[in-house]
What we know:
The chain is an alpha/beta fold. The protein contains 16 helices and 15 strands. The strands form 3 sheets. Strands 7-8-6-5-4-3-2-1-9 form a 9-stranded mixed beta sheet, with helices on both faces. A 3-stranded antiparallel beta sheet has the order 10-11-12. Helix 6 packs parallel to helix 8 and helix 11 packs antiparallel against helix 16. The protein has 2 domains: 254 residues, Aldolase class I (TIM Barrel); 66 residues, no CATH class. Helix 2 links the parallel strand 2 and strand 3.
Amino acid sequence: MQKSYTALKALKNNSEASLYIHIPFCNSKCSYCDFFSVTDHSLMSFILDKTIEQTARYIDYFGIRQIPTVYIGGGTPTSLPLPLLEKLFSFIASLPLEEGAECTIEANPETINLELIRLLSGSCMNRLSLGIQSFSDTTLGTLGRHCNSKTALKALDLVKVHWQGSLSLDLISSVPGQTVSDSISDIDTAISFNPDHISLYALTMEDGTPLARQYDPDSQAIDDNVWIIAADHLEISGYRRYEVSNFALSGHQSKHNTRYWKLLPYIGTGPGSVSTLHDKSGLFRIANVPDLDKYLENTGLLCGAETEEITGKSYIFEYLMMGFRMTAGIRKSDFRSTFGMEITEVIPETLSEWKNKDLAVETEESIALNKGGLLILNQFLLDTLSELE
């Protein structure tokens, strides 16, 4: 249901908010990807100008006075030509960034070169998230990646020598045909480049993607145990799991994504992006249209976005859904201050059952799913939703 955003203008709830900028351009489309992206670059300059304009207007309208984290995602943001990237970085540097703000940009290996690294190093960007996915050409072929292992290794060699900021690497596991030894080899190769952070995703067959049309999700070619064993190997190697799919060396957890999981305010600009702001009774979500022409045509503040107010039990469920993704779980005091009630009073049956099954742990300060519980997080959420209803 469409809701008016005008009431947010007078609130101070969003004076500190993170910024996500969506760059919807890729050099090629991977067969597993369902994120909004296009390979036609003809509107690139116009979209960037519109995105910068929308960002400035959001910050002014919603009264954002401090930005603790910035994340430029996509798409492949580094598919932008260097002059456009420089324009974007200059704009971001002019914003009310918190001192020491974490500023991340995503990149794919084929876009990495010395000129790009030098531009990044001289900008406000201080964290690079590189989409490796695998170092196996066979696995990359299955994923429809237009990048081979040689290109990935060359990019990482350049990054290791010339990039002084934080480094996060994305890997994908449980790919059709991938073995445990394949995934562990990927992890060991990734670790050899000393990243601060590694995201290890279990491949999801998203409806409508070429990969989902090619493989049945229950196919014997897909071994879910590959991800489980690979995740254990990451932890043994010193990367602490702090969220379902994210692992980091001490002190290098993604601050930006952690704000997502805690449902702290953020604005999202660019076609296909999403904002989550706080209003008096819950959350206010703004979803930008995933269409370049429609995004450019609309002159309003929201550029034709869909809006939704999330309150009551829907707000509680979203808080639980995001919070229990983290290995630290949910702090009881945070839940109490947000909703004015105890989490143990809201879903007592679910918590009792999962603790009795040794899948959840409760302390004086917090409640969290343990390692076994996180493996079946979706079932926990179904139980939670059923009890809330």
